[in-house]
């Protein structure tokens, strides 16, 4: 609307806008040296930030490698427990598919099955596991007691 005469004074406003633009251009020309320094600082910060991001990526790769090495040495049950406890994404196991496809399939199926269980089912399984351990311990204690009785009998016979 420049150059048009209107009653609301739009021509005056556009002239004011042009003056502001000229002042801004003049300020930029005067402070060009300072602007370059600031631009260099921003560039340096970006490079540093990029470097930090790169370092974080490298650390992530290192963690990924250490997870892969750990998974290779762990039993399937330990891997399942790890993925359930830390709520890890199953995509982190994809490396295992190329190394041992059957183990990959088995572990991922176990993790998925465990994630689908209700808390009541987990509690029942835990109680059953504790009960079976208790029975095994009792059986082991009884076996030890039986062996010690046998040993005492033999020693008694030897002493006579």
UniProtKB/TrEMBL annotation:
UniProt feature, compositional bias: Basic residues: 151-160
Compositional bias segments (type: Basic and acidic residues): 27-67, 118-138
Region of interest (Disordered), residue spans: 1-70, 118-160
Amino acid composition bias (Acidic residues), ranges on this chain: 1-26
Superkingdom of the organism of origin: Eukaryota
Protein name (database record): Uncharacterized protein
Organism expressing this protein natively: Guillardia theta
């Amino acid at each position: 609307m420049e150059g048009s005469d209107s009653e609301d004074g739009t021509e005056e406003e556009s002239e004011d806008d042009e003056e502001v633009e000229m002042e801004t251009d003049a300020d930029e020309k005067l402070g060009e040296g300072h602007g370059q320094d600031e631009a260099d600082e921003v560039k340096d910060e970006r490079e540093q930030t990029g470097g930090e991001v790169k370092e974080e990526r490298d650390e992530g790769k290192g963690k990924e490698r250490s997870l892969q090495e750990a998974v290779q040495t762990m039993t399937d049950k330990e891997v399942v427990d790890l993925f359930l406890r830390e709520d890890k994404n199953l995509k982190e196991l994809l490396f295992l598919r190329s190394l041992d496809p059957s183990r990959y399939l088995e572990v991922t199926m176990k993790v998925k099955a465990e994630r689908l269980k209700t808390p009541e089912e987990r509690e029942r399984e835990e109680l059953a596991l504790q009960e079976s351990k208790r029975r095994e311990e009792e059986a082991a204690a009884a076996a030890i007691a039986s062996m010690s009785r046998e040993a005492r009998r033999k020693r008694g016979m030897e002493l006579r």
